[in-house]
Amino acid sequence: MSIIHNEPNVQDIPETRTADAAQALCDRLMESTGDLVSLLERETALLRRGKPHEITALHARKSALGAILTRDMALFRRDAEFIRTAVPDRIGGIKEQHRQLQNSLTANQDALTAMKAISESMLHTIAAKLDEGKSGPEIYGKDAGMIGKPAGRTSAISFDESL
Q: With 80 as the cut, is the pLDDT of residue 5 above it?
């Protein structure tokens, strides 16, 4: 028994063998994909409005939809040949909705990247401002002129930018 890419074990779920079962699977795919697209669009809008703290309420539903979609896509892939034969008219809609999901994921990722860049910029600005106000010894040269701060002086705030 092997699980590919963390997909649920679909071997325990009976194969799709009737047109009604194929239709039901396609309906579930369309519904869960549509719900996930809507949720991602809400999350993206919140990020663009600068309200990342409000997206935490969406995480549980997003995780649940992701699990449903992953399971149903695994079933669809497993039984694709039969489904294409049993309900060929549903394939185009599923493909279109999958494209919408990809577009929503891309927009969401772009908004997250922008939010990360803004946050990093703010942290750099705050660190620089705090560092400006930080007092400490200054170094004077031979002619009694100021030549700067000691080498190795730490800044008021530092952070790791790696993910």
A: no
